[in-house]
Structure formats: C-alpha cells, structure tokens
Amino acid sequence: MQSPPPVAGASLPFRLWTPEERQASLRTALEHWRDGEDVWVYGYGSLIWRPDFDFEERRLATLRGHHRALCLWSRVNRGTPECPGLVFGLDRGGSCRGVVYRLSGSQVPTYFPALWDREMSTGAYLPRWINCSTEDGPVRALVFIMNRDNPAYIRALPEAELLAIVRRAAGRYGPCTEYVVQTAQALRAAGIHDARLDAIARRLEQDSHTLPEGA
C-alpha cells in the first residue's frame, strides 16, 4: 500500500520565541518612541477585522514596496506543526492597500505587548516604521513585513496546492479557510480591492481540492 505524500511544510524547523525575545524585539521597535506620543499601526490581514486594540483613528492606506501574500506557514494560529496552514505576510515588491490605526500614546504600553505576542510569536516578521500614503497625507506606521530568512517563509505556490493546504489546516484560532475568507470579506467591506485574494476566497468557498500527489 502506497504511503500518503508528506504534508507540505511539516518538516521545517519550528520554534516559538521566548517572552524575553519578544520583549527585546519590542524594546528595539520602540527605542525612538517618546512616552505619550501617538503611534500608527498598519494592518493588511486579520488586523483589519480583529485589531484587538482601541484606536483613535482609522484610515485606508497604501504601503509601497511590499504586497499581501499567503507566504507564511502557520503552525499554531491556523495550523499545527504536523499540518501547517498559511497566513498572510507582506512580501517584497509591489504595493498593498490596507488600513492604518492611530493609537493613543497613553495606550502604547498597554496594547503593544499583546500585539507583540500576537504578531511576533515566532519572529517571522520584521517590525519596521514605514511611510504609508493616506488621503489625508502620509503617516509613519509600524508595519510587520515578512522576514524572508525565517524558515516559515514560503515563496508563491501553485494555486491548486495553496488551496489544498488552506482547506485542510486548522489551529487554535480556527480553520485556515475561515481566516482567508474572512480577510477577503473584510477587505471588500473596507472598500479595498484585491483581485488575487478575491479569486482565492471564491475558490475556497465553492470548490473542493486536494494536494497534487507528492506535493
């Protein structure tokens, strides 16, 4: 009897960052922040529909130099080490339409540790302060871009393989399919057009698929 093909991504190294590593990263990101100063945070995926923090202002924003892509293996939130899912990252090249949130400076010490626990659990992102364009002028926002040197990074996959991986994965926050579809719906509700993501979401809602043999 032929053995089933290995699950893509299951053999890659995986390690959660320690609290000390997350705290060190957070201190580095805020080393130029002045106590009490408002900050902007850029959202392009689940932060659009679940920011988990109060904010003073929200604007549509364009980030140039990076694009939204399912380029990050998820082994906790939307998958497991044995059956990883895929979540969004900001990969190099192009541009990305998302939102920016302005947080009151007084709330930064309260909300940023939780934000780091959520976004930096494996160190797969690089926190950077980058100018984003909005209709009311540019803002310098905290952006979590993809760390291509992290083992969890994956380059663009054939659509059939991507869909199959997403369909079969689930983690502590629920099914990977739910995550991708909910992100597409949130973008549409915000007036953001992402043709690539819309096409993937429609396929996830309508079609069934399995991984190609040997993938």
What's this, in brief?
GO terms for molecular function: glutathione specific gamma-glutamylcyclotransferase activity; transferase activity. 29% of the residues lie in helices and 31% in strands.
Kindly report the name of the CATH homologous superfamily.
Answer: Gamma-glutamyl cyclotransferase-like
Overall SS class = alpha+beta
Euclidean distance between termini CA atoms? 18 Å
Shape assignment: globular
Q: Which value, in Å, is the CA radius of gyration?
A: 18 Å
* Beta strands, count: 7
What is the name of the CATH class? Alpha Beta
Rounded mean pLDDT is 92
Number of discrete helical segments: 6
Low-pLDDT segments, ≥5 res: 1-5, 209-215
| CATH architecture term | Roll
What is the CATH topology?
Hypothetical upf0131 protein ytfp
| Spatial sequence of strands, sheet with the most strands | 2-3-1-5-4
Tally of domains: 1
Most strands sheet: 5 strands, mixed
Order of helices and strands: HEHEEHEEHEEHH
As a percent range, the share of strand residues is 25-35%
GO molecular function, one term: glutathione specific gamma-glutamylcyclotransferase activity
Enzyme class: lyase
InterPro entries: ChaC, GGCT-like, GGCT-like_sf
Pfam families: ChaC
Give a written overview of the molecule:
The chain has a 5-stranded mixed β-sheet, with helices on both faces. Strands 6-7 form a two-stranded antiparallel sheet. It has 215 residues and is an alpha+beta fold. It has a single domain, classed as Roll (Hypothetical upf0131 protein ytfp), CATH 3.10.490. The protein has 6 helices and 7 strands. It has helices at residues 19-29, 46-49, 108-119, 159-168, 176-189, 195-206; strands at residues 36-43, 57-74, 85-105, 125-132, 139-146, 170-171, 174-175.
